[in-house]
Design goal:
The complex is a heterodimer of chains A (about 350) and B (about 300). Chain A has about 350 residues and is mainly α. Chain A has 14 helices and four strands. Chain B has 13 helices and two strands; from the N terminus they run H-H-H-H-E-E-H-H-H-H-H-H-H-H-H. The chains are: A mainly alpha (about 350), B mainly alpha (about 300). Chain A: Pfam families: BPD_transp_2.
């Protein structure tokens, strides 16, 4: 009823290949974007924006990156935090080494560097698979973390090993004026632009030849090779795109969210929490990355705020442990009951809306 | 000459200490191998199980005030219950899924056990002392840590015991049958659930012993489960299915990382122990993906 496809015909190739072929999807997306761009900055408080919305967007971008690799190309990685760190620290080097470089380019360069590192650590994936590869990516995680702590060059020899990102400012064209993103609402819009553009780009990439290659490799690598996808390029491109997205997310995390950051912020726990986002949100789904990131960002806040409202006072460490337990249970639950995660619930909902008010 | 001899003694000391630390890694790796060998599941939760077992052991001693052998038995009992629950609630529902799904499920188990153990027993550092000798021991002027020596002996005994268990007993043969092929094992009347419960219990026991050793060394605390991550490169080196491989891999990793830390570390900033083992394992993977003693994997693209 609400989600009827009948009557919507494609009369040209262009229409047929549109990124959102259904009118309802297009309207829904525009509504979501309107709310995200105008509604949230107007309504939400500074605290909400800087403590929830910005980290949510950035983590969603990182989850998107991991989803490309794990969800679409089937290569399990536990090194996400490491790739985020590369993005953050290399962006910092570009920003301090070449101050005249525009900030958007700085962040993208961080991502590109991360893509290079990703390719390097992706090379073993040609010979090893599954949890062997997971261990190899753990190597990346530990090595990168160590590198940024120990090698002073990356932090410009700061004694504490902490980097401080320069203020976010974009030079306006044809003038010497700069627009500074100083309030949390402006930072939020800045992040949102990045995330929306990259998410749409990824969505398009998934629908292209490259994306189909990733899925073919994931589903059955030998068959994929027989039908003409070269494992080398396909796997390495997945590693490159994935770590590019993670790198940009890491750079945003350092430049927009925290401002000052140390290598520990990108430790192994970050890798795990991002893996949880895509398992809970949905493996192999763009929307899943967003839903999972929202879930994992909101759960600790929920646990911190709801029990006191009900009159229970939980100790701080107990909250952390309960969080651990809930994550563990959710992971197992979703793997058993709904391997496609929360995103699948949405598509079931769409099916229901299609036939509403009748059950079938 | 005196100086050279001193250097040499120092080298031997580092080597021996590395080898003995390696046996401690092997103890953890054994738990992984057991479960992998018997069910084809790569159990990421082994480290968490070790922490949980050690926490329970110390916690029972503290709360009930019982002597340690009683606490040991109770801790084993807890691990058996855990094994039963894991089979009942998780693995039993994931039969015939891809290995990578099972692997991710064990990551979920890891987080649950970590949170649960610390909720029940508290997250402060606990001292574990059951009279295992600690401190230095001098043999021919070479310094050896007594605890590491004991750990070496314990690891040796356990490997011998497990090797006999796997090759000579009926249960052991059933375990290997399950590992080879779930379906075939089921069709000759082997109960998958019994096997899984048994093997997870044994892995829990191995975890408990490893936890006691590591707990004596470091105190029982959350970082124990991070030590377990060190067992992963050991496995890769030794091969996922080989018990002797776990030992040899542990020795190589232990000695390699100590020597690297002492002789290479100072030139590149130190504290390379954290990743050296992984890099070693990764380079090794490129040449021999199945590990030193692992079964050859034929499918490769």
């Amino acid at each position: 009823m609400f989600y009827r496809e009948s009557g919507q015909f494609s009369s040209s190739y262009k229409q047929d290949q549109a990124i959102f072929p259904l009118r309802q999807d297009r309207i829904g997306l525009i509504l979501i974007l309107l709310v995200a761009f105008f509604g949230v900055p107007l309504v939400a408080s500074d605290y909400l924006i800087s403590a929830i919305f910005i980290p949510f967007l950035i983590l969603a971008l990182a989850a998107l990156g991991l989803n490309v690799l794990t969800g679409y190309a089937g290569q399990l990685s536990l090194g996400t935090g490491g790739f985020m760190a590369v993005g953050a620290f290399m962006a910092y080097k570009f920003a301090t080494g070449m101050p005249e470089m525009p900030i958007v380019l700085v962040l993208l360069m961080g991502g590109l560097m991360s893509a290079g590192v990703g390719i390097m650590f992706g090379i073993p994936s040609l010979r090893i698979k599954g949890f062997y590869l997971a261990v190899a990516t753990l190597a990346a995680q530990f090595f990168i973390e160590w590198l940024f702590i120990k090698v002073g060059w990356f932090t410009n020899y700061s004694a504490s090993g902490v980097i401080t990102a320069p203020p976010l400012a974009i030079g306006l064209p044809f003038t010497s004026l700069e627009y500074v993103f100083d309030t949390s609402a402006k930072k939020y819009i800045f992040t949102l632009c990045f995330v929306v553009v990259l998410a749409l780009a990824t969505k398009n990439l998934i629908r292209s030849h490259i994306g189909r290659g990733w899925m073919a490799i994931r589903d059955m690598d030998i068959a994929a090779e027989i039908i003409g996808f070269k494992p080398l390029q396909t796997k390495l491109s997945a590693f490159a795109v994935s770590s590019f997205l993670c790198g940009v997310a890491g750079a945003l995390w350092a430049f927009v969210h925290l401002g000052t950051v140390e290598p520990e912020a990108f430790g192994i726990n970050r890798s795990f929490s991002i893996l949880f986002m895509i398992i809970i949100g949905g493996l192999g789904s763009i929307m899943g990355a967003f839903i999972g990131a929202a879930f994992i960002t909101l759960l600790p806040i929920f646990l911190n705020n709801v029990p006191p409202m009900l009159g229970m006072n939980l100790a701080v460490d107990l909250v952390v442990h309960i969080e651990f337990m809930v994550f563990g249970i959710m992971i197992v639950f979703f793997l058993i009951v709904e391997p496609h995660g929360l995103a699948r619930l949405w598509s079931i909902g769409k099916e229901k809306l299609r036939t509403w008010p009748f059950p079938y | 000459m005196q100086n050279f001899l001193g250097e040499f003694y120092f080298f031997i000391e580092v080597l021996i200490s590395g080898l003995l630390t390696g046996t401690l890694y092997s103890l953890i790796a054994l738990g992984f191998v057991l479960i992998f060998k018997a069910s084809g599941v790569f159990n990421f939760a082994q480290g968490a199980m070790m922490l949980f077992a050690a926490l329970s052991f110390v916690g029972i001693q503290e709360k009930l005030g019982v002597p340690w052998p009683v606490a040991f038995v109770l801790a084993v009992l807890i691990m058996v219950i855990l094994a039963y629950l894991v089979d009942k609630l998780v693995l039993g529902k994931l039969v015939n899924q891809e290995p990578i799904i099972l692997f991710m499920a064990t990551i979920g188990i890891t987080f649950f056990i970590d949170g649960f153990g610390q909720t029940v027993w508290g997250s402060d550092i606990k001292v574990l002392d059951i009279g295992i000798p600690t401190g230095p021991l001098f043999i021919f002027d070479i310094l050896i840590d007594k605890l590491e020596l004991v750990a070496g002996v314990v690891a040796g005994v356990m490997v011998a015991g497990l090797a006999i268990f796997f090759s000579k007993t009926k249960v052991g043969r059933a375990l290997r049958a399950v590992a080879d092929d779930h379906q075939a094992a089921l069709s000759v009347g082997i109960s998958l659930h019994h096997i899984w419960i048994i093997v997870w219990s044994v892995a829990g026991l191995v975890g408990l012993i490893a936890g006691i050793m590591w707990g004596t060394k470091l105190g029982v605390q959350f970082s124990l489960s991070l030590v377990a991550l060190k067992a992963l490169p050991v496995l890769i080196l030794g091969g996922f299915t080989s018990i002797p491989g776990a030992i040899v891999g542990g020795l190589i990793i232990g000695a390699g990382e100590k020597l690297a830390e002492i002789y290479i570390g100072p030139f590149i900033g130190g504290a390379i122990e954290n990743w050296f083992a992984y890099m070693l394992a990764m380079v090794f993977l490129l040449f021999r993906p199945q590990g030193l003693f692992g079964e050859k994997i034929i499918e490769r693209v």
